[in-house]
Amino acid sequence: MWYDVQNDHVDLFINARPASSRNEIAGIYDDTLKVKVKAPAVEGAANKELVKFLAKLFKVPKSEVVFVSGETSKRKRIRFPRSEKLMAFIEEQNS
């Protein structure tokens, strides 16, 4: 499963692809959400871009997006506060 829903938060398992041509959700592969980001994987730039992109997409504050694990890996576990936009996205991906 590429996500874990709890009472007050949602963890997403993300496969980040830095240095892409644009920021976008590329789909679900091998129980992870594949996300492409423009920034290169240099000095945390890709992670910052990833947080900025996903916070805007799910309409949550960047300050509430937290890396649970994988900050230096391509496979990451990122925690988000529950939001209507995020729950709708999960529902859409599962249909």
Report on the structure:
The chain is of the alpha+beta class and 95 residues long. It has a single domain (3-94), classed as 2-Layer Sandwich (Conserved Hypothetical Protein Mth637, Chain: A). Helices cover 26% and strands 36% of the residues. It has two helices and six strands. A hairpin with a 2-residue loop joins strand 3 (24-29) and strand 4 (32-36). The radius of gyration is 12 Å and the shape is globular. The two termini are 14 Å apart. The model has no long low-confidence stretch (mean pLDDT 95).
Outline of the structure:
This protein has helices spanning 45-58, 84-94, and strands at residues 3-5, 9-17, 24-29, 32-36, 66-69, 75-81. It is built from two helices and six strands; from the N terminus they run ββββαββα. It has one domain (3-94): YggU-like (Conserved Hypothetical Protein Mth637, Chain: A, 2-Layer Sandwich).
Under the CATH scheme, the architecture is 2-Layer Sandwich
| CATH-assigned fold name | Conserved Hypothetical Protein Mth637, Chain: A
Q: Low-confidence parts, pLDDT < 50 over ≥5 residues?
A: none
Counting helices, strands and paired strands, the structural category is: alpha+beta
Q: CATH superfamily membership, which one?
A: YggU-like
Write down the overall geometry.
globular
Structural domain tally: 1
Number of DSSP-assigned strands = 6
**What is the highest CATH level, the class?**
Alpha Beta
Termini gap: 14 Å
SSE order: EEEEHEEH
Radius of gyration, in Å, reads 12 Å
As a percent range, the share of helical residues equals 25-40%
